[in-house]
Each structure stands twice: as C-alpha cells, then as structure tokens.
Design goal:
Layout: H1 10-25, H2 32-43, E1 48-51, H3 58-68, E2 73-77, H4 84-88, E3 89-96, E4 99-106, E5 113-117, H5 124-136, E6 138-141, E7 144-147, E8 153-158, H6 171-174, E9 179-182, H7 188-198, H8 212-223, H9 229-244, E10 248-250, H10 254-270, H11 278-289, E11 294-295, H12 297-302, H13 306-319
Parallel strand pairs: 1-8, 1-9, 2-5, 5-8
Antiparallel strand pairs: 3-4, 6-7, 10-11
Helix pairs in contact: 1-2, 9-10, 9-13, 10-11, 11-13
Length: about 325
C-alpha cells in the first residue's frame, strides 16, 4: 500500500498540523496562538468567533487557511440591510422553452470556509439564518433541505470598539461557536516584519499543504482520540465551577464541555500524543469558555473580564484536586 494512502497516526497528524501551521504563520505574522486555535477548531469541526480591531489580518488569515487546504473560500460583509436570502440563497422563477420552473440559487454560505465579516452589524434575523446553517450544516428553502458540503467552517468577526449600529449576538447564538479567539495588535518588531512583507514585491501564492480529503481524515481521527475518565471528570468540574463562581450570572453550557473536550483532543494530536492529558484540557478552556460566561454586574464594576474569571476557575478546580 502506498504510504500516502496509509491511515493517519498521531505522528502524521502532528506533522501535517505543523506544516499547515508554519505555512499560515508565514503569511500571518506574530499570531501563533490565533493560528493554532483556528486550526484546532477546524479539525474539531467547529466554528470560530474572532474579535479584534480592523486591519489585523482576519481576512488574510482565513484565506490563507483555505488556500493551504484546497478549500473553497467565501466572504460575506454583514450590514444592517443584509437579508437572510443574501446569506443562504433564494428560490427564483426561470422561464424556458418548455415553460417556467422554480430553481434554488445557492447563496455564499455554500462554501467550505466562510468569513462572516462584522457579524454583529446584521439584524438578528439574518444572524439566525447563518447560525442555523452552522448548527444544522444545511439550508432549508421552500421545504427542501440542501446539505452543506463538508468540511464547513464559519469564521465570524466582530469589532469590540464600535458598538453603535450593531446587534450583539445573544448568549444562545454565541454558544454555537466552538472558540472565541482574540487578535491583539502586533508588537513593534512584528509590525516591522509585516511592513517588509506586505509593502515589497507581491508574495507567491500559498501552496496547498494537503487535500480536502486528508483534512476530513484528520477530523475523523480527532473524534476517535480517547479521553480518560479522570479527564472527563476534570472537564465536568471546570464547567460546574463556572456556575458557582461569584462573578458569573450564567455559566458554561454542555456545549462548552464538548468544546473543551474536542479541542483537547486536537491539542493532544498536535503534540503527537494518542491520548488527552490535563494540560491539553487547560489549554482549551479560555478559547472555549470566554464567550459562554455571562458575567455579573459586580464583575463589570470591578473591570473583571471573562478571561480573568476563566483563569480563576481553573485555579479553583486545580486546588480542589
């Protein structure tokens, strides 16, 4: 049997993950944690909410991921006048020589990697149309269900600075994102490297690292990674601790526990290990839970954010072990 047709192992997963990460980091400078979190979410068949100021390379990041995996890339710029049909598609009447017929015209959601830019600028009705497609991985129009081709991943962005004219995503919809990733501004040294890279000759297009079929194989392999009972108990205690925290009005849902577990499997394989360790779980917690906690008024007064609460939850659970 050809080695290229051999089933993937933790070592091949680690090698392919590293090759994909390094290729994207050659395009997106100074954002290693963001790149790794994006790849883990993609391999865990999840969606990502990215929060960051404009001009930090969010579109470039998604396009680089799509190019490196031979996936189709789509982009929707969300605005207040965007309608659900502009996202999912619409049924139109087409006249022909043998009479007219109704035909479904697919919208931009029918792609592999979708960038939903500034998702909080669209109305709740339009947001719901996209989030339904994310959850069901299908679109229903005129009573007919149209499945989305796998892999399907949404990377939605929102600007934390501009709140006027926006419609914040409610907690129930935020819960559908596997990760919330924060993109920070680059350091002076990284900014200098960005200027050298982006203001010189046009760089060569990013070559594909592996095929779509290989990505699907890695997604299947991630699901098969075992988690010991002690690891599952640790995840349960972390999620339960979010509900008991004094600065939290509403803690993480079961989806939060699922997100932590799936991401931990990905981090384990990325390290070349066939099983999950507690450190993999700890690493998954911030991105998996920061958007799932509804903080109290006291937390807002004290200036405590979700990341600080998550770190406090981890320390509390670790002390009780």
């Amino acid at each position: 049997m050809d080695s290229s047709d051999a089933p993937p192992t933790p070592v091949t997963f680690q090698e392919k993950f590293a090759a994909l990460r390094d290729a994207i980091q050659g395009v997106i400078l100074g954002q290693q944690q963001v790149v790794e979190d994006l790849l883990i979410a993609a391999l865990a068949q999840g969606h990502v909410l990215v929060e960051g100021a404009p001009g930090l390379g969010k579109t470039r990041l998604v396009r680089a991921f799509a190019d490196a995996t031979e996936l189709h890339f789509g982009r929707i710029q969300f605005t207040p006048d965007l309608m659900p049909a502009d996202v999912t598609g619409t049924t139109v009447f087409i006249e022909g020589p043998e009479g007219g017929r109704f035909e479904f015209q697919r919208g931009p959601v029918f792609t592999h990697v979708l960038l939903a830019d500034e998702i909080n600028r669209a109305t709740p009705k339009t947001q719901s149309a996209l989030l339904e497609a994310m959850q069901e991985r299908a679109v229903t129009a005129s009573g007919t269900r149209y499945a989305l081709e796998e892999p399907f991943m949404v990377l939605a962005t929102q600007n934390p600075l501009e709140m006027e004219g926006t419609y914040p995503l409610p907690e129930a919809q935020l819960d559908r994102f596997l990760f919330k990733v924060l993109i920070n501004r680059p350091s002076p040294d990284t900014l200098r490297r960005i200027l050298v890279t982006t203001t010189g000759p046009e760089p060569e297009p990013l070559a594909p690292i592996f095929r779509r079929e290989e990505l699907l194989e890695l997604q299947t392999m991630l699901r098969a990674v075992p988690v010991a009972d002690a690891g599952l108990e640790y995840v349960v205690r972390l999620v339960e601790a979010t509900h008991a925290h004094p600065l939290v009005r509403l803690g993480a849902s079961p989806r939060g526990a699922q997100a932590i577990t799936l991401a931990a499997k990905g981090y384990a394989l990325a390290a070349g290990r066939p099983n999950v360790e507690l450190e993999d779980i700890r690493r998954s917690v911030p991105a998996a839970l920061r958007h799932r906690l509804l903080l109290s008024f006291e937390a807002e007064v004290e200036g405590t954010d979700a990341d600080a609460v998550v770190q406090d939850v981890i320390k509390t659970v670790d002390r009780g072990r």
